[in-house]
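Replying to the earlier thread about multi-chain prediction with a worked example.

Input:
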Amino acid sequence: MMLQMTPLWTDWLIYALLLIIALYAAYTRSKPHLIAPWRKVARSPAAMASSIILLCFVSIGLLDSVHFREALAQQKAGDKIAYSGEIISLFDYLVTPLRTHVEKTYSAPLALNLFAMESVEQRDGSIARIFPRLKYGGSHLGQERTNSRSDQWHLLIQGSVLAMMLWLSLCVTLLSVLATKLNTCFAGMLHRIWRGETDLPWRSLLLTTAVLLWVGMVLLQLAPKYHVFGTDKVGQDVLYLALKSIRTGLIIGILATLVMLPFALLFGILAGYFKGWVDDLIQYIYTVLSSIPSVLLIAAAVLMLQVYMDLHKEAYTSVAQRADVRLLFLCLILGVTGWTSLCRLLRAETLKLREFDYVQAAHALGASHWKIMTRHIVPNVMHIVLITITLEFSSLVLAEAVLAYVGVGVDPSMHSWGNMINGARLELAREPMVWWLLAAAFLFMFVLVLAANLFADAVRDAFDPRVQ
Amino acid sequence: MIAYVLRRLLYAIPILIGVNIFIFTLFFAVNTPDNMARIHLGMKRVTPDAIAKWKSEHGYDKALLFNNQASNTDKFTQTIFFSKSVPMFAFKFGAADDGRDIGHDIKVRMLPSLALAAPVFLLGLLVYISFALILAFFRATYVDYVGVVLCVAMMSISGLFYIIGGQFLISKLLHLVPISGYQGGTDAFKFLVLPVVIGVIGGLGSSSRWYRTIFLEEMNRDYVRTARAKGLPERIVLFRHVLRNALIPILTGVVVVIPSLFMGSLVSESFFGIPGLGSYTIDAIRSQDFAIVHAMVFLGSVLYILGLLLTDISYTWVDPRVRMA
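Result:
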């Protein structure tokens, strides 16, 4: 199959971010004092369990960040290859059944029929008001479709058995590797892990993996044949929407903090280091910015962005690119409005650090201001930066939903949990209720934010000198 | 004291000017007055005459920041920036883009906002501090552990779900209170109960956890050990010694929001249909009414700066070591 790679702007930023993380990891590996706090994080069971969950989310997000256009079928051999106008991602490609199984409108989770009644012409020509059959949900059962529940149970058990087998083989491999490494017998290793006496919290790691494997395998069995979370207003699979929203959530959570870092680091350290008029000026700037209520500032900025994009419609060739530019700008805006609190923290820390003996010594030895700031101050405020990034992540993911509600979030065409909630909100008055959109958005957001919160706590405990 | 307050109020002026310049550049950097007129008159087939008329009606028919055609000080005063920003300092907000008087709207809508935000604030403070005190009292036991887990779980849920869930459970299933709406007077109670309770629950996780950390930090101090060594019961140590001293860090985060209570809450007001300033702002954002957004930004900044001032004053009140300088 021929492909044409079409990376979006945010894709590039994600690749750049991966590179930065890889560089940081490589740098940290050789420095015992830098790796020590991470070892402490690795010993926390909650942090390790949540990091596995975060890893799952991140891998889906990464798969979803490789965008390309598929080649259209050639009319005859030798024709110039034409590419489809639709940009899809590697993740879209992997879950093609989810993406393409589009029904007419709402249908409940695991349902066989549409949620709304329709007038359908029967075979004998009469017109009846019925709930029409779904085009894809349970279509493998043929016309009968009476035994759908037992089929679903069958698939569930099949998935569970598969997950169990995978997990057990994983456990056995891990145990034997650990046992040979630590020179104990297999049973002794099992005992130690069961009692939680290992250095790394293998027990919680394995339990989390078990749950994830189970969920993954069951979904793998059920999702191609049924709509596990139902379908939305235009008949798209809600599970697909929720999975696609992962990338949006991650990008907002990560890129926005990435945008605010340079501002906060530069201004915070300059203000704290030079004091005097530099400090006054920077303090003035961040007081002005932070005195504007943040939602209003974001709203005003996004409004202007909207106007700008309406005036320059011709610059975007596809819906995906347009939505992507808007997402990027939203991250920029969130970053520009959010750097003030970190800046204040960094300024205070720098004010303290600049009076320390080693900085004074560097000064006396003739080190330049730039050198002192980059070699002596920046490494010593990095723990604040790291703690802020991890703490900020979850609040940004939650903020996305609120911004979507206010009407200044990501592009309405973009898949995001905020847009899912916003769309479902209008259907709440309906009787019976359309609850599955909300349930799916709730579940995914809750798991991601909870994992992020637990991980951030462990990071804070490990890096914050006040806690130690 | 009075001199200090006066000086702080004077400091506020450059900051407010900065806020105005910032918002003004944000609005007009990409959006010319012609565009604004076109948006409001409908994008298609607008005659230049109609645009000129709209601009003169809404006061956008001047230069943006600097007027070359005028003389002397008029160069600065005969501009959109001057005519739109300066009256704000006297709290004259002018007219919205649809012609309504913003100042009047704000006055009318302030009360419902306050009626929702003030109980959430007071009740919330009471609940969060008590909950945090309970956790601190049972520190390092299962009560504390479960409480903290509950807090973390609660702060991982988006505020929107509290509102949607509460409306569904209380109003739709149990029919205890109306789903949304508002009435003045004593009837306001039944409309406000649910939003207030949900507002308090929504903030429980993060606030209680934060207060708990403050209490625990305070409990490691020497004076607490002394108090225990004297043989005081834990109850007295907690309420008489720890609580009072922990009030100082708590004040930093709390007092600053008091003036902003007038602004109301964006999301819950519009969910519950309460005609306050929060829903006013959301409506303005959705209808792209820049005049209202500008006014609300200005008002919000003023209230925030007022909050900072109140924080500093309250410091001297609770902590005699802090002096006004």
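The radius of gyration of chain B is 25 Å.

Feel free to reuse this layout for your own posts.
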